[in-house]
Every structure is written in structure tokens, then in C-alpha cells.
Amino acid sequence: MQQGTGNTATTGDEWSSRVAVTVNGTPRDLTLDNRTTLLDALREHLGLVGAKKGCDHGQCGSCTVLLDGRRVKSCLLFAVTLDGCAVTTVEGLAGPDGLTPLQEAFIAHDAFQCGYCTPGQICSARGVLDELAENWPSAVTGDLTGAVEPSDAEIRERMSGNLCRCAAYPHIVAAVREAVQAR
């Protein structure tokens, strides 16, 4: 992931900058206070409220989105540093044919209860699927030279940055496992 291209233009107001990002496939040009986080830009300036503000410290994962295809906690990133980047939120995951197999697996396995963390969980799971497809090892990967086996321990480790206050973890692991197997 490469943050920004250095092309962010100032607006004449020393506290604001222009930033061009692609959000869910749509180019967006924004003028933002330099202190605006990606999460606040998505929610307050673009009306995309899927990513949630849970802890606002990068600890809970409810604000997880994909930045240039990699999982990030959007509450920790200043939006003006992301000029030229592509952001995918939970709203941008489903295609024209409806929900993705991952989203369908979350429904089938009841991988949510209150639903507050679900958008971040689903974006993180999307990142997990991509990491597994690229054979990225994790802290629990046994063989670092072969294909990564998507065991429950592997899935739990990779999803560990996303908390669920309702403790739906077994259901989340089952949903991710099903989506891995469906690939």
C-alpha cells in the first residue's frame, strides 16, 4: 500500500487540502480539513456510513476498510495523505449481481448479532481472503514456504484485529472458512 502521491493541493486555507481518491470505484475530489480522518471523510463528507466509529483509536476494527486492496483502520489515517489511492468500503463490496459469497456466508452463519462491527468484519475478511490467495503467512502459519492452510487458527489470527462485542467469533470464523472454501 502506498499512501498518497504527494499531489495534494492546498486550498488557500492553511488548514484544508484537496484530495482526489477513488471510493468504491468512483473518483472523488474532496476539500478537507487536514485533520480529517479517512473514517470521518467517508461518513461525514461522502455519506458512506458502513464503516463505524467504535473506539477511534484503531483498537476495535469497526472502521476497517480496504485501501488499495489492503485492510486498514480508517480512524487512524488522515484522508489528505491518501491522494491517488483507492478505498473500498463495505458498501462497495457487493457487485451488480448482489451480495458476494463472503457476505452470503456471514448471513448463512449468523456471523453478527447487533451488526455494529459487521462492516469492518466483512472488509477485514475480504482482506483475509486476498492474503490467503497470495499465500501471505501470519503469526500462526506453520510452513512459510508452501501454500497457507486456512485453518480456524489461521482465520482467527488474521481476524484478531476486529473485535465483536457480541462474541460472534465462532460464526465469523465459520463464515470466513466457507468463503475460503468457495474460492
UniProtKB/TrEMBL annotation:
The keyword Cell membrane does not apply. Keywords: 2Fe-2S, Iron, Iron-sulfur, Metal-binding, Oxidoreductase. One of its GO terms (molecular function) is 2 iron, 2 sulfur cluster binding. Pathway: Alkaloid degradation; nicotine degradation. Residues 17-93 form the 2Fe-2S ferredoxin-type domain. CDD domains: fer2. Gene3D superfamilies: 3.10.20.30, [2Fe-2S]-binding domain. It holds the Pfam family Fer2_2. PANTHER family: OXIDOREDUCTASE, IRON-SULPHUR BINDING SUBUNIT-RELATED-RELATED (PTHR45331). This is Xanthine dehydrogenase YagT iron-sulfur-binding subunit.
